[in-house]
Specification:
Length: 833
Amino acid sequence: MKFKLNKFPILGGVLLTAVLLFFRVPVSILLDKLLVSPLFAYFEGGAWADLFFIIILLIVSGWLAKEQSLIFICRGFALGILFYLFQKANNYWDFNKLVLLPMFAYWDLVALSGMVTIPLFFLFEHLDQSLSPSETKVGFIEDDPVILYENDHFKRKIAATEIASLILRTNNKKSFAIGILGQYGSGKTSFLNLINLALVDKNVLPISFDPWSVANPDMIRREFFDLLADKVATIDMKMSSLVYSYGRKLAGIDGRSQSWFKWFGFFRRSDSAQSSAEYAQINEMLKATGRKVIITIDDLDRLYAPEIIEVLKLIRNTANFFNVVYLVGYDKGYVQSAIGTLNGNAKNYLDKIFQLEIPLPKYEKDDLLVGLQGSLKKMLSEEHYYVFENTIIPNGFRNRYEKAYVGILRQNRDVVRFLNSFKIAYNLIGKEVDFQCLLLLELIKFRFPDIYELIYSQSDKFLFERSFLSTHEQFYSPFLVKQEDVKNKTEDVTVFKTYLEKLEFGDEEVSILDGLFRSLFNGSEYKRPEQKNSISYPLYFEIYFRYRLSNYDLSNKEYQQAKTLGGMQEFMSQCANVGLHKELMVRFLQEDITKDRRHFEQVLIWVFSFGRTFVEKEGMFRFDYEGFLTKISNYHNYISDSLYKKDKVVYGNFINDLFSNALPPFLFENELIFRLKEKSSEFVLSKEKLTNHQYSYFTRMAESGHGLSKDTLWLFWGARKYYNEGAQDDNEWQFEDSMITKMKVYLATKDSKEFLKFSINRALRDRSLCSIYPQVMEMFDDPTEYRELVRDNPELAEGIKIEYLEFFDKLALKNFKGVVEMEFQTEIQKMDD
């Protein structure tokens, strides 16, 4: 078995146990002479001494828990408790007892403090997380390279360790240069750090040189040797001085004269270290030390071409020393291109500089997703993270043949940059819009900002608004066209996809973008988007791009809070005051009320309550009655069976209570009843019961201060009935008998001005040609009965009375058939719209 001391002190524990078991007495005698007798033989305990001792132990335990790693604490505790148990069982010593706690010895408290350190560690860790929010929660995420093994999320430690092992076993007579290849942001710096972590050895001198921080190419050589001289000073001051002098001499050569000499071929190797005695001396001194010098040069691909050439000269020429290893990170394509601007043979140039080039080890297919997932877990609410983990990951990130969203994020730096961009949008509107839509749209914005702008600015090219009878059902859906695939089969594709193909995007990019687009706008003829704050709904589309609510936007956050916290009445009032009554009613009608009786009844109560406000502001005929009827009509007993345990009576009682609790002017409820009666006779309330409610509304209005007002007349008109079921012809209806009887009473006792207005039927093309609606005349057995009610009404103004009777008599001469010409001069001259 191979023991790994860096994992757990198994071997140390075994050796300590063996020593204590077999050499217990000699060890005790040794400790007694070295420690116990000199320190504790004359110790005098007491209350103050006990208290001071306890405080000291608590401070030490707290410091260990706060400053040391859990591994260190556990190792120390495991070995310490082992030593404590053996010595406690040792008859060689008597342990002093505390005065304050006589059942404990001082030695017991030392062991107890070690036990307390572990729970203290977790307590401090919890407090740090709760009291000091992490940077991920409060600010942007830094693109920090890996500096510890535990942060190696891409599992590159194994390769880095093997490279380091081979470096340590290589005894090179000249510098050995290793290139670590990778694109920008792919993790080269982290991989170099992992190699250096594995190179921690007493015989290794690590040096990190950053040529990017040097002001100009001419200074790179000087800065490098100054740094090298400073580092080797820890080994040999004489060698440090020599390196410094050597570097200054090389840097002192005038660059311009160098160039002139090179043109004439006289100074081709003027900066060659091989011609320098100092170079040879430095080389021998480095060899004599037995130390391996590891020089890390990162971000070579950040430099300009002359700077790159200067660094490469250092590696292969002026600093080509014994037992020196260069670890250089760069994007090979960029470096070759830069060299090509100065040297025509760029393709093979790097082969002369680096003995070994190692492409960055590829990460596993889920490594980027794991990094994204870990950061989002800290950033998102529990509800949104659940959606990400259980919906977005399996359907988008792991379903490579469909959407493959993971293709948006190509490297770890992409993950960090996306998270920082997404955090802005999420913090601003994360609680207002649908989380899944926001995440997908932000993925598009991150990788394809031009396409993101295109979706917003030219949405009418790619989307159309599906028209339904009910406004709350309208949503954006992708335009589709027929297209032949490679097998000559016709399929429906989005216009968005065809547009991308014309822009010459690659097949993979088109697939990713089209998958994201289809997921954003996933409604179809047979399926509406489930989340009502989805980008597909017109109420919320703009918010996704604006990152804020305007004065015309309904806050989804406040709406949900009102739903859950019982503040909907107050929210209704707030929306009505700021002109958001239409938007709020749309949200009510969008609610899925088919699964839970409590929610079903709650939404219906809201609609009935807010319907009055809506009608007051928008008029009686602007409300979406048809949409609401689909929610309350008990087609095939669907509602009563699913929500009321097949008890139609209970459902009917609930609806009856809603109508009974209506408030003046009853316009919303009255019109709703008219639509219910018109629609079908199969409802949980009979037509008779519904008409009784209308009768109640009419009489309560008429007998209150409203009298025969316009609103009261609308109630009377809304109580009409058709001769035939489903008939809607203007001439195939009549007023309810009970309402007629009551109206005759009111015509005799109340101001009937509005009724007289209401009774006049004007021709559409010539408003001076008038008649009386036949349904009004049908209210009376004899026309003279109606004339007498008008003539004898004490509340009716005399001028109105005279004018209307003149009109009446003209029609009587025609037996109330056809029209007569009449120019009204009093208040009944026109019917209000």
